[in-house]
C-alpha cells in the first residue's frame, strides 16, 4: 500500500520539496524545476491554492484524480489527502500559495474562510481560467510573493491576508462564471438530481436508509457535496438540502390527504425514525402540524 505522509506545517512542505522558508506559516512555491519533482501522497495541515499552467503532473484528492488542461486552479484544505504524480517526459509548471490556519486566525480572512467552499471541491471540479482571469490570479499571487520577499514587519500579516482574501474572492467569482458557462451540464445534473430524489422517496430507500442527504445524491452524481450544493444553489436559488426537503414536503402533503395512512406511516416513508421529528419538520415549513394540515384539507 502506498505510504501517505503527514505534512502538518508549511515548513515541513518546504523541506520535502526543497523550497526556502521565508515565513513559517505562509509561502509561495514554484513547481518548474527538476529538484521539485517526484511522486507523493500526503495529508496536509494547511490551505493550498495552485495555478497549474502545464500538463506536467497529476494532482489527486483521495481516490479521485484528473489530468487537467493547463491554466487551471486547484485548491485543498487542512485534513485533505493530496497526491502529486509526475508525468514522464514533461516538466510541470505551477505556482502554489500555502498558508496555515494559524496565519489567518483573528483576521477577516479567518472569519470568512469557510465560505470558500471550493476548497472542498474534488480534483475534477477544478477552476478553468480565461486569459483575463489568469492575469488577475497572477497579479494577486505576485503581490503575496513580493510581500514575502520583504522583511517581516507589523504590516506583513495584514497585507498578505488581505491579498489572499482578494484572490479567493476572485476565485469565487470565476467559479460562478464557470457554473454559467457550463449551464447545459448543470441542467443535466439537476435533471438527474430530480429523478434520484423521486426514486429515493417513492421506493423503500427512505424506509431502509433514513432521510435523504446531500452527500447521498452528490455521490450518486459523482460530485463533491460542496460543488454539488453550490451548483444547485446557483441554478435554483435554493440549497441542495432545502431542495430535498421541499420535495419531501410535497410528498408528505400528498400522503396526508389519504386518511388511511397514519402520521407514523407518512413519517417512515420519508425516512424519519421518530414521528415527532417529522412533525417538527412539517411545522417548520407549513406553520401547522401534519394533523392540522390533514383536517384543514
How does this model look, in words?
There is one protein chain. The chain is an alpha+beta fold. Helices cover 50% and strands 16% of the residues. It is built from 13 helices and 10 strands. Strand 5 and strand 6 form a beta hairpin. The longest helix is centred in the middle third of the chain and has 26 residues. It comes from Parabacteroides acidifaciens.
Domain unit count = 2
How far is the first residue's CA from the last residue's CA?
61 Å
What's the architecture of the largest domain in CATH terms?
Answer: Sandwich
Uncertain residue ranges: 59-69
The side-by-side strand order for the widest beta sheet comes to 1-3-8-5-6
Number of strands: 10
Shape: elongated
Portion of residues within helices: 40-55%
At the fourth CATH level, what is the homologous superfamily of the largest domain? Regulatory protein AraC
CATH topology of the largest domain: Jelly Rolls
Biggest sheet overview: 5 strands, mixed
SSE order, as H and E?
EHEEEEEEEEHHEHHHHHHHHHH
From the alpha-carbon coordinates, what is the Rg to the nearest angstrom?
A: 24 Å
Look at the helices and sheets and give the structural class.
Answer: alpha+beta
Q: Name the average pLDDT.
A: 86
**Number of alpha- plus pi-helical segments:** 13
CATH class of the largest domain: Mainly Beta
Strand residue percentage? 15-25%
Domain HTH araC/xylS-type: 191-296
Protein name: AraC family transcriptional regulator
GO molecular function: DNA-binding transcription factor activity; sequence-specific DNA binding
Keywords: DNA-binding, Transcription, Transcription regulation
Amino acid at each position: 500500500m502506498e505510504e501517505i505522509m503527514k505534512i502538518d506545517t508549511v515548513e515541513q512542505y518546504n523541506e520535502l520539496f526543497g523550497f526556502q522558508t521565508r515565513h513559517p506559516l505562509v509561502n509561495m512555491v514554484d513547481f518548474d524545476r527538476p529538484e521539485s519533482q517526484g511522486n507523493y501522497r500526503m495529508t496536509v495541515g494547511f490551505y493550498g491554492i495552485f495555478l497549474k499552467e502545464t500538463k506536467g503532473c497529476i494532482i489527486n484528492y483521495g481516490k479521485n484524480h484528473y489530468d487537467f488542461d493547463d491554466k487551471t486552479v486547484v485548491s485543498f484544505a487542512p485534513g485533505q489527502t493530496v497526491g502529486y504524480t509526475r508525468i514522464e517526459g514533461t516538466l510541470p509548471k505551477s505556482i502554489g500559495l500555502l498558508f496555515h490556519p494559524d496565519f489567518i486566525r483573528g483576521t477577516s480572512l479567518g472569519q470568512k474562510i469557510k465560505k470558500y467552499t471550493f476548497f472542498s471541491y474534488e480534483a475534477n471540479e477544478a477552476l478553468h481560467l480565461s486569459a483575463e482571469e489568469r492575469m488577475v490570479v497572477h497579479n494577486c499571487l505576485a503581490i503575496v510573493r513580493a510581500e514575502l520577499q520583504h522583511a517581516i514587519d507589523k504590516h506583513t500579516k495584514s497585507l498578505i491576508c488581505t491579498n489572499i482574501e482578494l484572490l479567493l474572492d476572485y476565485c469565487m467569482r470565476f467559479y460562478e462564471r464557470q457554473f454559467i458557462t457550463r449551464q447545459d451540464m448543470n441542467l443535466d445534473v439537476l435533471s438527474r438530481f430530480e429523478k434520484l430524489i423521486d426514486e429515493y422517496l417513492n421506493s423503500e430507500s427512505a424506509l431502509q436508509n433514513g432521510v435523504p442527504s446531500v452527500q447521498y445524491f452528490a455521490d450518486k452524481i459523482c460530485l463533491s457535496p460542496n460543488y454539488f450544493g453550490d451548483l444547485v444553489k446557483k441554478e435554483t436559488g435554493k440549497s441542495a438540502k432545502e431542495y430535498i426537503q421541499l420535495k419531501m414536503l410535497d410528498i408528505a402533503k400528498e400522503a396526508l390527504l389519504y386518511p388511511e395512512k397514519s402520521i407514523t406511516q407518512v413519517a417512515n416513508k420519508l425516512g424519519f425514525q421518530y414521528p415527532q421529528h417529522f412533525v417538527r419538520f412539517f411545522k417548520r415549513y407549513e406553520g401547522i402540524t401534519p394533523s392540522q394540515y390533514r383536517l384543514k384539507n
